[in-house]
TrEMBL record, chains A, B:
Superkingdom, natural source: Eukaryota
Keywords annotated in UniProt: Lyase
Lineage of source species: Eukaryota, Fungi, Dikarya, Ascomycota, Pezizomycotina
PANTHER family assigned: D-GLUTAMATE CYCLASE, MITOCHONDRIAL
Listed GO MF terms: D-glutamate cyclase activity
GO biological process, one term: glutamate metabolic process
The keyword Lyase appears for this protein: yes
Protein name per UniProt: DUF1445 domain-containing protein
Membrane spanning residue stretches: none
Family: Belongs to the D-glutamate cyclase family.
Keyword Lyase: yes
Protein species of origin: Aureobasidium subglaciale (strain EXF-2481)
Amino acid sequence: MATGKMSTGAAVRLAARKRDLVGVTSGLAPSFLQANLIVLPSRYAIDFRLLCARNPVPCPLLAESSQIGSYHSLKSYIDGLTGDEIASDLDIRHDAPRYMIYRDGQLATSHVTDIATEWTEDHVAFLIGCSYSFETALTNNSLPPRHTIMERNVPMYRTNIQLCPAGVFTGSTFVVSMRPYKRAVVERVRDITRPFVTTHGEPIAWGWDAMEKLGIEDINKPDWGDAPLEVNGQSLDSANEDVVPVFWGCGVTPQEAVMRAGLKGTVLGHAPGHMILLDIKDGDVFSV
Amino acid sequence: MATGKMSTGAAVRLAARKRDLVGVTSGLAPSFLQANLIVLPSRYAIDFRLLCARNPVPCPLLAESSQIGSYHSLKSYIDGLTGDEIASDLDIRHDAPRYMIYRDGQLATSHVTDIATEWTEDHVAFLIGCSYSFETALTNNSLPPRHTIMERNVPMYRTNIQLCPAGVFTGSTFVVSMRPYKRAVVERVRDITRPFVTTHGEPIAWGWDAMEKLGIEDINKPDWGDAPLEVNGQSLDSANEDVVPVFWGCGVTPQEAVMRAGLKGTVLGHAPGHMILLDIKDGDVFSV
């Protein structure tokens, strides 16, 4: 999908805003942080902040609207960075390539190009860290994720691993992203991704025996993103003990939480894989 | 057990140090914070801090040794409080009433009165928040935990809920404490305990149907603490839909993690229920 590269996160946001972008943002502006989006009616904001604080691995909170109703400016949760430094010249209603719309806890519309007509003065946007942020580091260590080689979206799955509940957010479970790796390099993959603490960090599970623990039935049928393909074009096969699935917390988790909690009103999110790019780079946030 | 009360956390520490204390510390110095203890060889400190950061509900890190080998002074992780304010005149080797000793990931000795001969210059102590800290609030809201009425230790259970792994800490699961409540008051109990974010906060699960989800087979056979008793002296009965178990994250989780990870060397911890009292009070930390 993303064959070309763009020079900055701001350039990606502007292209999305002008509807010049097609496809997912994985690897689109290398080393610039990408963010998951969830937009909630303001009455749910306190509970959502607590959900993030209690579940920082799937829900690492980077920033939120500077005030209720603001889609132009951010309040930062990253030490040493202001909201303007995270993203200036921002329009959250247009800057993701594609969006999801939820009504009363149900997905109503998928992959729309903007949410300008849905946004109200009562909405609060939250930006959540994205695992795309450590893919550059994996690639730089000669361990490029398969889906980036194959130019596909990363596969994402519902699991039965409970989130710690927070107020109205009960009954939620982790969403995970998956990248297959040779069993022999899993410890290196853990080491490389461990420092990325606000973009999901090290994996939460790995190996074929993790499938049952997570409650994932078929690795080749993800709930979001593209089915995983080996570099030879083959599907993943659990009979192949040499290549194993590696699972990370995923920032689609808040969208799943909104559905599990049956939140009333209109909730907005990015389409999985179609992220909002930020102005900050890995090196601004992580010691890697 | 703890029928009398003591005036301060410091008084409890001194009594433990002089071996004048028998029994668990629940409710012993009302409103003073109590802490779980884990003492690790220094080579595991970085991974343990990350384990806490990734799992703040069972493992809320309050403070650690001010430097490797220090049992007298603390480095604080609580905003606005210094280590000395958390506990001065401290001796971590003596100030819990009872301790556990682990060797090479196995429990070696249980309920010893001090760890002076086990402590080395390579050990680092970590203090973790304790759910006893919200019991005063529950009591003040006319919802005293059953075990405090019955003067017993709170029951604690192993679960199959995964911790997010961190470095050497893999394969760990939540330990939970349990307090039974009438079904009708569970939402009030959630509300009352929610603000206590660094002492486990609101429950992670409740109701009889939570038993299977957590992997707890028999509510009347806890892994630590005393079996739960109703105020009439009866055991809990899942046939009684009116009274349900309510489960919180528990600071014994790090001791379980040490065993699951099979850590080499000597690891020390408090005996469950026999906490280290601090100099700070609920109101110093929580807005309640």
